[in-house]
Amino acid sequence: MSSTSSRRFSRQGLRPPIVILVTDAVDHGQRKDGELPLALREVHGKSLIEHWWGCLEALGLNLQTHLYLATNAVNYKFFEFWAHSRGISTSHIINSGRSLGDLR
Question: Where are the domains of the chain?
Answer without folding.
Answer: 16-103
